[in-house]
Amino acid sequence: MSSLIQSLVDFLYSLIYSLPFFTPTSQTPQKTVLLGLQNSGKSTFLSPQTQHEPTLRPLSKSLTIGSRQFITFDLGGQSNLRSLWSDYVVTGVLVIFVIDVYNFSVVSEEVKEEFEKVKDTCGILAVVFNKIDLSPNEKIEDLKELLLDEEEGEDEDIGYFLTSGLKGEGVREVFEWLGERVEEGRKGE
Ligand SMILES: Nc1nc2c(ncn2[C@@H]2O[C@H](COP(=O)(O)OP(=O)(O)OP(=O)(O)O)[C@@H](O)[C@H]2O)c(=O)[nH]1
Ligand SMILES: [Mg+2]
C-alpha cells in the first residue's frame, strides 16, 4: 500500500513540472512512463539485477543518466491494467514503449493495437525492441515494418532501439536520446 501512495505522490510531484507556468531546466527530472505488454521487460529494463514479479501497481524510480535526471513510472502491462496507462500519458511526459522481440511475431497484433493508441496520445516516444539477446539477428528496419502501417511516414518524435534490458545493453542510449529530444525541444521554443 505504501508503495502505491509513494507512486501517487511521485506522480503528482512530477505533474507540477508539466504545468504551463513551470519552466523546466536541465535539472528538472523528466517524467518518463514505461508501457508495453506484460512480460516485455519493462521492470527489468529499469532494474536488471532484480527478478521481477508481474507489476500490478505503478512503480516509480529516479534515475540519473549523465547530467540528466528522470523519474520513471513502470506500469503493469497485463490487459486488465492497461486502462491505467492513459492516466500517466499526459502532456510533456516521455514514453518508452517496450516490445519483446522474441515473442513479437506471436503477439504482434496486440502490440500494434496498443502502440497505435499510445502513439497518438504522446509526444516524444522511444520504441524499444527488447530481449535482443534472445534474438540477436533482428534488424530495426524489419521490426519497424512489422509494427507500423506501410503508408505511415517517418515520425521524428519516435526513436527506435534494440536493447537487452536484462544485460543492460542499449538502455543508456534510450535515455540519452530522450534527454536530447527534450533539449532540442527547449531550444526550439
Ligand atoms: N533474455 C531476456 N529476458 C528478459 C529481458 N528483459 C526481461 N526479461 C525477462 O522477461 C521476464 C519479464 O520481465 P519483466 O521486466 O517483469 O516484464 P514486464 O514488462 O515488467 O511485465 P509486467 O510487469 O507484467 O508488465 C522476466 O523473466 C525477465 O527476466 C531481456 O532483455 N532479455
Ligand atoms: Mg513489470
TrEMBL record:
Keywords: GTP-binding, Magnesium, Metal-binding, Nucleotide-binding. InterPro entries: P-loop_NTPase, Small_GTPase_ARF, Small_GTPase_ARF/SAR. GTP binds at G36, L37, Q38, N39, S40, G41, K42, S43, G77, N130, K131, I132, D133. One of its GO terms (molecular function) is GTP binding. One of its GO terms (cellular component) is Golgi apparatus. Coiled coil: none annotated. The keyword Magnesium applies. GO terms for biological process: Golgi to plasma membrane protein transport; intracellular protein transport; protein localization to Golgi apparatus. It comes from the Eukaryota. Mg(2+) binds at S43, T55. This is Uncharacterized protein. It comes from Triparma laevis f. longispina.
